[in-house]
Amino acid sequence: MSKLTDVPKRILIGRALRSDRLGETLLPKRIALPVFASDPLSSVAYAPGEVLLVLSIAGASAYAFSPWIAVAVVILMFTVVASYRQNVHAYPSGGGDYEVANTNLGPKAGVGVASALLVDYVLTVAVSISSGVENLGSAIPFIVEHKVASAIVIIVLLTLMNLRGVKESGRFFAIPTYVFVTGVFAMIAWGAFRGLVMGDNMRAPTADLEIQAEQQGLAGIALFFLLLRAFSSGCAALTGVEAISNGVPAFRKPKSRNAATTLALMGGLAVTMFCGIIGLALATDVKMAEHPAHDLLRDGKPVGEGYTQEPVISQVAAAVFGDGSFMFVLLAAATALVLFLAANTAYNGFPLLGSILAQDRYLPRQLHTRGDRLAFSNGIVLLAGAAALLVYAYGADSTRLIQLYIVGVFVSFTISQTGMVRHWNRHLRTETDPAARRRMIRSRAINTFGAFFTGLVLVVVLITKFGHGAWVSLVGMAFFFVLMTAIRKHYDRVSQELAAPEGPSDDSLRPSRVHSIVLVSKIHRPTLRAVAYAKLMRSDKLEALSINVDPAETKALKEEWERRGINVPLKILDSPYREITRPAVEYVKSLRRESPRDVVSVIIPEYVVGHWYEHLLHNQSALRLKGRLLFTPGVMVTSVPYQLRSSELAKQRAKKHQEWNAPGAVRRGPVDKTQQGAGTAKEPSGAE
Amino acid sequence: MSKLTDVPKRILIGRALRSDRLGETLLPKRIALPVFASDPLSSVAYAPGEVLLVLSIAGASAYAFSPWIAVAVVILMFTVVASYRQNVHAYPSGGGDYEVANTNLGPKAGVGVASALLVDYVLTVAVSISSGVENLGSAIPFIVEHKVASAIVIIVLLTLMNLRGVKESGRFFAIPTYVFVTGVFAMIAWGAFRGLVMGDNMRAPTADLEIQAEQQGLAGIALFFLLLRAFSSGCAALTGVEAISNGVPAFRKPKSRNAATTLALMGGLAVTMFCGIIGLALATDVKMAEHPAHDLLRDGKPVGEGYTQEPVISQVAAAVFGDGSFMFVLLAAATALVLFLAANTAYNGFPLLGSILAQDRYLPRQLHTRGDRLAFSNGIVLLAGAAALLVYAYGADSTRLIQLYIVGVFVSFTISQTGMVRHWNRHLRTETDPAARRRMIRSRAINTFGAFFTGLVLVVVLITKFGHGAWVSLVGMAFFFVLMTAIRKHYDRVSQELAAPEGPSDDSLRPSRVHSIVLVSKIHRPTLRAVAYAKLMRSDKLEALSINVDPAETKALKEEWERRGINVPLKILDSPYREITRPAVEYVKSLRRESPRDVVSVIIPEYVVGHWYEHLLHNQSALRLKGRLLFTPGVMVTSVPYQLRSSELAKQRAKKHQEWNAPGAVRRGPVDKTQQGAGTAKEPSGAE
């Protein structure tokens, strides 16, 4: 606000950039893939490790189950991708899971999905950044030694970047994402070549460790339960898949088809990388444990608290490329960067979803206005604060945070797919063209399987992870659900209260005359301007009103009023206790009592100043009086501003703010008038 | 604000009390004495101890100098009391030292005195509470073991009490003060009786300790310097004397004379108690040291860090009445209570001084309005925060805090007395009546001696205490001085910029026509009311304006507008980026460009809601638009409020706040219109 705070703020948040008006920024597939897929692709950096980690509970021999779990994850991934390809065709408007649920299953389901997604965004930030820090730490030990601090520093940097309104740029996303994908594929190829063709014996840094099984000789139900848990953890690879379905409007035309193709591409890349990393991990004898300090043994003794468990991707890279080699460091850096970009995705998705929810009056409606800096800023700070809290509470341990993560994802998957089944049922009722019907029936089958499978996974996740942290997510969802329901209820109640009656308006809205009062404390330019404006308005009665808080001053005011020949009667009210507000409000009320059908127009000269501290020094009694008058029926309150020279500053600041770039703008795509007009968009009711 | 925060707030701060309108609360002398004198009287609880403490640096033998130092303090006290008796006669308006300095020595001296007094108030809280905790601790060891925490708890309690607006009641002050004074006199009398008549050998708890002199065999300049330092410390007894001169308006008539009598009474009581305690301390062999852990020896060995040095008054009480006896506990409790009341004095004096400074535009002018709860609350929280910080930083050690204390007091004493000399000089120039001249010459002589003596003490204090902490006070004073000067400069600049030109007003203030615009987002009651009111105003042109952020909605709005037959033209502005503010402001500007002499009146329907969270949900775009329009010249912005049912709550809250009791109200006395009109009171300029 002030010059004082402006300089550091400008350094941190930056001068607002001129928006290039979104219009020409539609994304080609090769750019859309990294923009939307950095989140799901980056999850292969931690998901394979999580599978091994859970299996290790039954000892190293259980690692043999990991290919089967990988197969299950691959099937699930194909199911989800196939299902969402139906979504993007059926709902090209970018509403994503929320819109699907809302339209087909009703508002409760919609709010449920939205709550799950909001929690998910928070966790995307927390998990991705924690995992990114772990990956970066495999190359730079300092970072992993100060894990929580590093993670929070990165959250702060991302927050500042997004508050600053840095527009997501395709290239910014493309380079690290493609380096990451290429790097992982090179690692898989080179690893396969060395292992299968050259017969090298590649050894991961942890190859010589032994795992002490926490639960020896698991079998039957217990083993099955453990495998389910490992599968749940592997499902972390699925997070972020729905991002594309939220971003359809940002694609080049044909939007839906391009989005569907990108989705398939993303799915293919993800499963290949996931399986490749698991395969290499088995080949290089990676050892990971849930509690490495106790469960990993070196020469028969636990490695102890000082041991840092490296992420599976970095262990494999060390085995294939050599620890500290150029490719190892490059891959570690790319992995970390992609994970940070995945976190940034949440910074963009959160306001985007917020805007859609605001449109449906589940959130304050200023979130709907594009570029409402204040609203977006609050959202971003909320997101960052919640993520930082989680990172702090869980010691930036991605393994522990992942326990919370997958619930939200699968809640929205399941509800959304169920909604899609309803969608096709509805359309099938009216569709008569056999070819179209066939397509619909096929789509319905895919979505039905999707709903069933993701629902099953959700149950598995809930059962296996509830005590490990999933309950925290559920609490978060319940919080958002209750909050949004309450906000919507409030807007509905107000809207009902405000509804204009049909037919001739009732009498209370039909005032007969206006009695205008100009508030005067002394004679200066603002007062003279206010009096001049008031005269122009030709109200039925016009008088100036001054509150006598100091007889000497009031006397001087009266004399000057006469001397200047201001032809408006000056009324003086006594105020023995030096109050301004009370006598003025009581006078207005007395006028209303005398003639209830009159409207009282109170005209207040106001200074406009440029600095926040000047606000503290001025207009306080004017503001208070205005605040009180607003509660008095039959009153209109007019500010006649007088711009002081310093106000020029504030004006320029306000302009700058207006040219700010809202996060999520690229994903949202440009405003398409025809589509917008035809869509289900509802402007929240209320005075603008 | 909200129900949610209201409940705990009401428990802590309480329901605002109905003010009994101050009018009938003039104080008789027997009540005024405890109200105003709890501060100076309470200082005898620590001042004698400080003298002994400093002397101990040269060993126990130096205690022999203490009677001489007591004599010096007594002379100083008589001088100051005599001087201030002149003040209360000459300046009965309650402006105190600030008014005297401001009137006679100019605004810089006035601001200097005010800065010193503000720092002093902070220190009064810090020192009194620390000392009170030490005294209470002599009866309840738990308190002294958690000294800092106890002191801060008491600061918090006093702060809540004052935020709550508990009116100072005479009785509340009178009982502990009179118990304290009676108790000390009883102690002196009983001690004298036991010692002189009965020949008892009373022994203080520390009588058997030895003092290891930090500086052995001091003589000459060094000894003199030490004696000066001891004297400086003894001057702590003088703090608070000026309180009565600030409170003259609160006395019964004849105000000045009653105030002068009370002052004399207070001085007499204070010196008697001071000397009595020093005498008893010598008679009972009290041993106090600056660093008791090292310098006090028991059987030749230092007592060590665990030793708690009891205040002198409690040691003497233990010797005279017996440790733990009823009188001992009663006196300890009364002492602590009087010290806390002394701290409370600052809570009342701070806003009182702030109000006077605000009147002269050195502080934000809302401080001048009686019962501006927000302004007072900020002042109280500032005072409490600064005091708590000092208490924390100095470990609630009254001895260390006292080093900071006396500077401010003697700065204001000296400046004020110098001002009084000028006052008499000025009056002597015009006075011809020989009797009056004689009186004036006598008064001038008293004030001259006062100025000289207090100035000398100030120099002594600065020299002996600068390094011990007095510099902190000087930094604080400089801070207030710079702040207040800047605020005054700002008000002056604004006032100059606003000054209405004499003669016929210039053209820019003489608009010709009004173009009214009612902002419409949808048709509901607030809109209809705003349109009806706008029609009443009979402006030259009236139109309704809607921003098209959603074509479908806009179309619906247009149709309903037609259907309802609202006979005001509806203008639609396109807004491809869903902005509200920018298109509206640009439209207004374009109107102004077309006809620069027109005034644009923007009428905004607004909801009035009752809870702070409802504010978050409504009117955001209206508020933002209003904010931006105020920067546009030639615009008037009218709010037409529509009161939602929930607004009733907020209205009641606002009423409650209005009936709040401002701290310092009793001291300030009622508003006396004749006096106020005749005084130098200047209402700060600016719109109310």
From TrEMBL, chains A, B:
Q: Which UniProt keywords apply?
A: Membrane, Transmembrane, Transmembrane helix
Residues of the signal peptide: none
Identify the main location. Answer: membrane
The way this protein sits in the membrane is described as: Multi-pass membrane protein
TM stretches of this protein? 51-81, 111-133, 139-160, 172-193, 218-241, 262-283, 326-353, 374-395, 401-424, 445-463, 469-487
Query: What InterPro entries does the annotation carry?
Result: AA/rel_permease1, APC_K+_Transporter
> What is the annotated localization of this protein?
Membrane
Q: Where is this region: Disordered?
A: 653-688
**Per the record, a Pfam family?**
AA_permease_2
Q: What is this protein called?
A: APC family permease
Task: Supply the source organism for this entry.
Answer: Streptomyces coeruleoprunus
What broad taxonomic lineage does this protein's source fall under?
Bacteria, Bacillati, Actinomycetota, Actinomycetes, Kitasatosporales
